[in-house]
Amino acid sequence: MDFWEYLGSRHQQLLTDAWQHASAVFQCMVLATVLGVLIGVVTYRSGWAGSLATTTTSTILTVPSLAMIGLLVPIVGLGVPPTVIALTLYGLLPIVRNSIVGLRGVDPTLVDAARGIGMSGPMRLVRVELPLAWPPILTGIRVSTQMLMGIAAIAAYASGPGLGNEIFRGLASLGSKNALNQVLAGTLGIIILALLFDAAYVLIGRLTIPRGIRV
Question: pLDDT value at position 212?
Answer without folding.
Answer: 61
